[in-house]
Design a protein that fits this description.
150 residues, alpha/beta, five-stranded mixed beta sheet, 5 strands, globular
């Protein structure tokens, strides 16, 4: 299946497609960090737009997490904006933008020329039923991405 996916991505790129990669990394499901990276990096190198959580970014860069990950704790003060040199080992020529999300509180963006963060709002005001921020960042980036490809 992995080879089929990589082949489909290569065909899409050849035909002018834009590849969006949302890591969605469930670390406890993997045998080791190194095994995990062998699956991630081939697709990473082909992607035009990538979205990761702060925790996924820290894993890929070998950064010790600055706090315990808790999808119910969406406090803005927890979300560090890493300098571009920290991300440099992950950058490649195909990459146009890298989003680092943590719910809706803050979305960080990195391009070759620019980087920054956009403040959002806490999840709770969006709906009284929102209690988990793990998909909120996905929604924000999907909205930004959909306007990009139009």
């Amino acid at each position: 299946m992995r080879e089929t996916t990589l082949q489909a991505i290569k065909i899409s790129k050849k035909l002018g497609g834009v590849v969006f990669y949302d890591l969605n990394l469930p670390l406890p499901l993997w045998q080791s960090g190194e095994e995990t990276k062998t699956f991630i990096l081939p697709v990473w190198g082909l992607a035009d737009v990538i979205e990761v959580t702060k925790q996924e970014l820290e894993f890929l860069c070998g950064i010790k997490p600055s706090e315990k990950f808790d999808t119910n704790d969406n406090d803005r003060s927890k979300f560090t904006h890493y300098e571009p040199d920290v991300l440099a080992p992950l950058w490649h020529d195909n990459l146009k933008v890298l989003f680092v999300t943590n719910g809706t509180s803050k979305v960080h963006y990195y391009t070759k020329e620019h980087n920054g963060a956009v403040l959002g709002m806490e999840d709770a005001p969006l709906t009284p039923f929102t209690c988990d921020m793990s998909t909120s960042g996905d929604s924000i980036v999907a909205g930004a991405d959909s306007s990009h490809v139009r």
